[in-house]
Every structure is written in C-alpha cells, then in structure tokens.
Amino acid sequence: MKSSRHRHYHRVRTLPNALSAARMVLALVAAVLFLLNGPRLLPVLICVFASLLDILDGWLARRRGEVTRLGEHLDPLADKILVTVIFLALVWFLRDGWIALLVALLLLREWGITWLRQLVQQRHGFTLPADRLGKWKMLSESLSGNVFLFWLSRLPAELAPGQAFTTILVAALAVTLLLSYAGAARMLIRASRRAGSTAP
Questions:
Q1: Assigned domain for 200 exists
Q2: How many domains does the chain divide into?
Q3: Alpha-carbon distance 98 to 88, whole Å?
Q4: Is 142 part of any domain?
C-alpha cells in the first residue's frame, strides 16, 4: 500500500497549498497598504496573520499527510515574499543605512537559497526542505520583523523612532542574519552530499 505522502505528493488542490497561496496574497495586500498609508496597524496585523498561517499550513501538511511537490516550492516562496515585504517596509520607513545593509544581506540570502532550491531540483531531481535551524530562522525573522513594525505603528506620527529603537532592531537583525547564514551553510552541505550520493 502506498504511503499517504506518496498518494498526495502530486496533488495541487490541498488546504496547505491554499494557505500558502493566501499568505502570498496577504503579503502583497500588506505591501500596498504600507505604500498607501505608511506604518499603520492594519498592514502590520495582516503580516502577523500571514506569519501565523505559515505555522498552520506546515502543521496541516504533516497532520493530513498532504506534503506535496507544489507545496515544497510554494511554502518557502510564500515565506520569502512575506519576509521581503516586512523588512523592506522597515527599510522604507526608517531610512537608516545600517538597517538597509543588514536587510539587503538578509534578502540576498533568502532569494539566493530560493534560487539554489530551484537549481538543485532541476539538475538533481530532489528538493531541499527546511531543517530545524531553518524553522528557527523563519521564526526569528517573523518575530523580529513583526514586532518592530508593530512598535513603529504605535509611535505617534510626529515622533521619529529613537536611537534605542534603531539599536535594538540592528541587534535583532544581526542575530537573524547569523541564523540565516548558518542555515544556508548547512543547506549547501546537505545539497552537496546528496548530489554526490545520487551522481551516476
């Protein structure tokens, strides 16, 4: 008898996939609201809700045995779009050089890993799911980004963020970067070993 994962692997219409697609739509809606209205509470709450959906769709995929080929690509893509919106919003509102540099390094890693996953899939025929460190990295990104956007949305419009805000944000971004690049290094090692083991 085939496993549940094998049965559903090539399905497209699953609840976890729908939630991943919803996260992408929510991230884009939040981006438009940020551009139109600035750091207001509504787009921040949309980002928080989309981040919670990330936890839910992964849990449902495992619980329902609906880990699919599409989901293995759609879920990390939704993560990258949401993270990009959250951190570019912070850069846009704060206009701080150090924050812009750290966010650029963070997004370079995020989209670089996305490209690596696609390359490995095309050349070697296997996927690179996130490991435990990658999940901690995503949690760190979501938590730090959403907390600071929420903090920013609660400041009076006439009051600029103080030095304490910027210092704490830079420290949080530094920790997130360490987790991100450590996870990327582990993923490169995994990809290299697995590619070597499947080589003819």
A1: no
A2: 1
A3: 13
A4: yes
- Residue of 83, 78, 85 lying closest to 21 (CA atoms): 78
- Kindly report the CA angle at 38 between 37 and 39, in degrees rounded to 5? 125
Q: Is the pLDDT score of 1 beyond 50?
A: no
- Give the residue carrying structure tokens 């963020």: 161
**CATH number of the domain bearing residue 65:** 1.20.120.1760
What length does the chain have? 200
Question: Does the pLDDT of residue 5 top 60, yes or no?
Answer: no
Evaluate whether residue 199 is within a structural domain.
no
Task: Give the start-end residues of each E strand in 65-135.
Answer: none
Range of the domain at 58: 4-194
Residue 88: its pLDDT value, please?
A: 96
The DSSP secondary structure of 50-85, one letter per residue, reads HHHHHHHHHHHHHHTT---HHHHHHHHHHHHHHHHH
Task: Tell me if residue 154 falls in helix, strand or coil.
Answer: helix
Give pTM, 2 decimals. 0.82
Name the pLDDT band for 42 (thresholds 50, 70, 90): very high
pLDDT band for position 2 (50/70/90)? very low
Closest CA to 112 of 140, 149, 84: 84
